[in-house]
Amino acid sequence: MSLGNVLNMARTAMAAHQTALQVASQNISNATTEGYSRQRVELTTALPTVFPYGSVGTGVKIAGVTQARDTLLDAAFRQGSSGAFAADTTNTALSQIQSILGEPSDIGLSAALDAYWSAWSDLAADPTNSAAKSMVRETGNNVANTLNRFASQLDQADQNNRERMNVDVGHVNELTKEIAQLNNQIVSAESGGQSANDLRDERGRALDQLANLVGGQVVEHQNGSVAVYAGGRMLVDGTTVHTLEVQDGQPPTIGFVGGAPPITGIGGSLGAEIEVSSTTIPNVMARLDSLAKGLVESVNAIHTTGTVYTGTPPVASAAGNFFDVTTPPPSGTDPRLTARGIRLAPTLTSATVVSAGAGATGPGNNAAALALAGLRDSAVAFTTSGGSPVTTTRFGDFYNETVGIVATATRHAEDEATVQHTLASNADTRRQSVSGVSTDEELIKVIEAQHAYQGAARLVSVVDEMMQTLVDLGR
Q: How is the chain split into domains, by residue range?
């Protein structure tokens, strides 16, 4: 082996360890960069030269720059992160509903119902008292207004949730396009056998964000591109992208542009938003509608049997409805029998048309007021949507049960969010143990590369001295 070969080994060693130093510096620089995966220079021995007496090494060469990444840990992290985002979305929605109901409260529906039944009791005690009749009318109007307010706020919450769905779907479409572009760039960059580590990190960050929105599954192909599936349906594969859209209606759905069937089983925050608008809010609204319907029908059934007295001397006439029951619209749904539409009857213009008695036995009769006050403790059949069985209970108990259902669901969502965040954090810790950058470890690599570079440089000096000796011998 000639001195030239030794000098070449020193040169390649200096270049290799200079690259190792550069990669270690890159790792240290990106130690806190989100989504960055630690890189390593893979060094290997160069092909040896074979002599009659044996083979002699020719130095070191760079086999490649690899990326420390584990696809199984990536999948575990994305699954946990998707669950955490879904739980947070559900928890936020339920907390908002709980805030709308606002119980326990002195101004909530429970207090309004108590005041309404108490007003009927006061009227039964003094059936000719106009102030007591005014209080009945006022408290009844307050019950109706409270239900109207709840319905309006739930409608607004649903509208806000649907707007977030549209925003998130737009974000999903942006991410799938970005992933498709990165797929194309990675395939092109790695076609010669190299690894496009920085592009893969960028794609990994996009895949993490996509998992937060829709969950899903990532499948990597041999050429380096990936396919992403959500609810078993392909969102992106290589450079092919399927664009999503929100399909409004009840329940709202997510599907591909062009009228394809809706996608079911979506995870992440978008899946939770679908659940909120298709199940969570409608279920609460259905219970409030059932409460309003039961209240209107029960109160009107008694009040219409009553008698009111007007004029001097008092003249008896049949009482009308207490709550409005207008003709149903063409859809067949009476808006007055819902939380949105409950209101006082248009004929209930003043306290004089509030009935306390039943039958033409004189203004002092209190039979109707007693019966209406008794509704506080009467069992009423309530029906809710979604195939729920009929519940026979008191008005207050039915409403308290509704509040309890929301409170229990909220607590469960809080617990689920805590669990999912813990799982996501643990998965991220495991992933960082493989992909994350340890500055201490990288500094050790820097020192190793520095010493190896200095050794190779010293070898150049030695070869130079040996060549000078040869020159001197030839003189």
A: 3-68+438-473, 75-186+272-422
> pLDDT 10s digit of each residue in the chain, 475 long?
577 777 788 888 888 888 888 888 888 888 888 888 888 888 888 887 777 887 777 788 888 888 888 888 989 999 999 999 999 999 999 999 999 998 888 889 999 999 999 999 999 999 889 999 999 999 999 999 999 999 999 999 999 999 999 999 999 999 999 999 999 999 999 887 778 888 999 999 999 999 999 998 999 999 999 999 998 899 999 999 999 999 877 788 898 988 678 888 899 999 999 999 999 999 999 999 999 999 999 999 999 988 887 777 777 788 889 999 876 665 666 688 899 999 999 989 888 889 888 766 667 788 889 999 999 999 888 877 655 667 889 999 999 999 999 999 999 999 999 999 999 999 988 988 888 888 888 898 888 888 888 888 888 888 777 777 777 776 6
Q: Which amino acid is at 240?
A: T
Q: How far, in Å, CA of 448 to CA of 207, rounded?
A: 35
Query: The pTM is what?
Result: 0.84
